[in-house]
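Hi team,

Filling in the usual template for the complex we talked about on Friday. All components are listed, including any nucleic acid strands or ligand strings, so the model treats them as one assembly.

SUBMITTER: L.P.
PURPOSE: interface mapping
COMPONENTS: four
RESIDUES: 704
SEQUENCES:
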Amino acid sequence: MTATSGRVPVGERLPTLEDVARVAGVSRATVSRVVNGIRNVDPQLHTVVWDAVERTGYVPNRLARSLVTRRTGTIALVVSDSESHDDDPFMGRFFADPYFGRVVGGLMSVLRAAGIQLALQIVGTEQQRARLVGDLRHGQADGVVVLSLPAHDPLPRMLTDAGVPAVMIGRPADPVPINYVDLANDTGASLAADHLVGRGCQLVGMISGPADVPASSDRIAGFRRSMARHGHAWVPQAIGNFTQVSGEVAMRELLAAHPTLDGVFVANDLMALGALLALRAAGREVPGDVAVVGFDDSSAAVAANPALTTIRHPLEDMAAEAARLLMTRIDDATMRVSSVIYEPTLVRRESA
Amino acid sequence: MTATSGRVPVGERLPTLEDVARVAGVSRATVSRVVNGIRNVDPQLHTVVWDAVERTGYVPNRLARSLVTRRTGTIALVVSDSESHDDDPFMGRFFADPYFGRVVGGLMSVLRAAGIQLALQIVGTEQQRARLVGDLRHGQADGVVVLSLPAHDPLPRMLTDAGVPAVMIGRPADPVPINYVDLANDTGASLAADHLVGRGCQLVGMISGPADVPASSDRIAGFRRSMARHGHAWVPQAIGNFTQVSGEVAMRELLAAHPTLDGVFVANDLMALGALLALRAAGREVPGDVAVVGFDDSSAAVAANPALTTIRHPLEDMAAEAARLLMTRIDDATMRVSSVIYEPTLVRRESA
DNA sequence: GCGGTGTCGGAGAGCGCTCTCCAACCTGTG
DNA sequence: CACAGGTTGGAGAGCGCTCTCCGACACCGC
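RESULT (copied from the run log):
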């Protein structure tokens, strides 16, 4: 046993278990046990080993450890995009949208405490998807959180077929036995309808997102259903793509086709911002002439003028729940497929 | 050589190089060579091997490969925070801020094309920092992009001392020989001063961020210098923390202390949004009574009412450049420390 | 025909760690 | 005192891959 003093350098390379073992005068296995806090090791040896760890400046090599344990302490956040190219501006928009940041924030709030890191990956092509699944089966990451954008994304199915622990944020478009966390989008839209009708609007329109993405179609369905219940069998509708500009364009269309419009439900806040611009340009007062309800309660809603009445979407909580669900699934392979649906609420501000 | 047909399953586990080698009737080394496209391998064997790869459904195990090559194809994005706790709401705000998303978007635009993934890590405590550096020295990631928040962050120094390829977005607060990409913050602030004075403002104030973070102090210095050049030796100032609410509060303070204020430079758009709110509440017209210039040209600037005149901050480009710089450094350890400074421009909209 | 010069493929030694044996030892009991 | 039963620590076999040697063989010129 060496004296308890001084640093023990090991040349160029980083100290390994072997080095620590030599310094401590024990075997590699024992050091491994101590470092990982496994089984009862003689308290004396325990001290000696930690001492040697200290003196050599040993840091376990995660990679080597992962290779044998098949656990990486990493969770992949996969953004599955249909076929965008590297220079497609779409991804830029996507990341700049608060949606992405809120998801990351929610995930990190849980993962950080568990010491798990998040690996971001974007897959667009079929080849990238296949490669991703291959890597995941090899244990590149312990599990994956999927943000699926395209309408008929094959990724969720590929993931479940491969047996990779996965959870989606937002339900899959096609029925796939995968865990997911979602918002009751239809209820949210319904809340918007109730509010607009409740404040006396006579002709209420809607600016929706693309009809083939689940979150969007659920909002459309929920809104229509609720409006019908209030006696409005038909609802004027224009379609955008969730960007501010598209909302502006859609609002102009709607206004041109239905000049007497006095209320509008916009499927997300960013488009609502655009709608506000178009309404102002058309000389309409909000909410005096036209009442506007958004969706998401993103930071943009408060910043808008007038501040947006909107549907609150607890995205951070949802993402955090997704992380928890995934961690549970990772630890228990027999967990049955489950989903958690969050209820939205209406946040009343100035625009309606 | 086996017949070219059918799948060759290998039981439960995933196929390894060994399996492919057996099926192809060659050695492990040869398969490795073919898969990695190394050296001249007999074209015939080449075909046979790819065939075997196809039939076994072989996918290389990244982990195992990384263990020996010491290359991971991963770059870490480290958000270095001073001492926030897991339940600190600050991180939530940080991620929801478009700043984060824009950086990620810019990085990904470059990394994605290179097939590199981004691993997100937040370090707050001293222990986490030490662990991160240890992991990085072991080649957990090939390099690291640092987003350093606290004023006197020890991380940049630790990174350079450890010899880890690193690049910062925003210059380090303390002088450290580390690569970085930054904006000429002083020039930007100077642009704002010129514009406000140019439009005839007589009493111009400033809402700045904390004085001890570089980006903020540079903006303060640049603004003051330029104002002084225009004959305004002294500038009323209030301090915020880059959030909308803090901007609102600061604006109220400024207005209370200097009721005749007719122009204000706000150090970021989010605070400018808050300032707009406070001005409206105080019954001041923008830009009629008070002209407002923001900073960042974030999406909030366009959404604001009136739309914000602001300083454009090409953050995506800067992040992309950071990624390129880092990749160069990773491939060439002898690269000398370098920095790239971007020039901001003034974007004129309605608020000034 | 022979040494010299290439080219190609295989053997095998790691990369740094975990974890299953198994030997050694230390109790307590009949 | 012998032996079951329970610890502890070491040896060593991998995890799946890369890459350095080195042998085998083909081709060249003299």
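MY TAKE: The longest strand of chain B covers residues 74-80. Chain B is about 45% helix and 15% strand.

Thanks, L.
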